[in-house]
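hey can u check if this looks right to u? its 140 residues, i copy pasted from the old doc so theres a chance i mangled smth
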Amino acid sequence: MTGYEMFWPMMAHAVLVFILYALLGWRRRVLVKAGRIQPAQFRENHTADEPAESLVVRNSLANQFELPLLFHVGCIVLYTAQADNLPAVILAWIFVATRYAHAFVHVTSNDLRYRSPLFTLGFAALVCMWGWLGIWLAFS
């Protein structure tokens, strides 16, 4: 390993955030052009009656700043503790893959039958990642 493998999943997650921002902007432009919403609602963040097409993207984007915060902190701590080895990197990639899949389901069908297991798998990977860090710190 080169020592930088832990940063690739972090960058991949950042790309997901950029994609969701672009999708949110595109869907909102389409809604404004169709007359379904007024631009002033976004200017002052009055989005209580935001159409579902952009609301699901906004919610998915907000999700990327909740649990993933622990992911990014964990990755940095794993790197600085020199615990960013193969098990940690695999867990990081599992987390990011589930974030992509979760976001895809969120902004398309928004079906909880698929979203919930994806979230749970990502959550479990993140818990294991932090558990791995704890074990590494305790025994190194």
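The chain has a mean pLDDT of 95.
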